[in-house]
Amino acid sequence: QRGSQFFPPTPHCSDVPPPQALAQQRHRQLQQQQQQQQQQIVTDAAKRTVSIYSLPSREAVQALHRVELEVQDLEETLVDVMMQFDGRSLTPGQARTALSNVEARAQKLEVEGIDNVYTGELNSGKAQAKSDKKDLLKRLEDLYSVLEKSFREIKVAETAA
Description:
Elements: H1 19-50, H2 55-86, H3 92-114, H4 126-160
């Protein structure tokens, strides 16, 4: 008998949300998480730069903080593109182009944003700046790995079509 302890009630078709609605719901959840993370990043960076850093150290840490926000934007864009691709809102070509743009922005950010912050002559904020650079480079490395996986996923979807 349906609805009993052993046989849960069968869901009606109207009770099951369509895949696109599930993707949109997941997207909203990710956006909320990312906004919370961004607020925490801003708070953490403000705490770090308000301390007793010299002007050059403060500028270096703040520059790295700006890079951190841009890296976060790249991570969010990657998630958005793949969600749209999975939800069939983007064609494989559109998804590949969007991911190529993310990859190009990441490479430019690495060279112009992270590598351009020199820590050798810093004193008060040297350890913080070095740590921030290391963390950002690790995040970019992870981003490149996910991009690689996403490109492969798109290629598989193209060959299956």
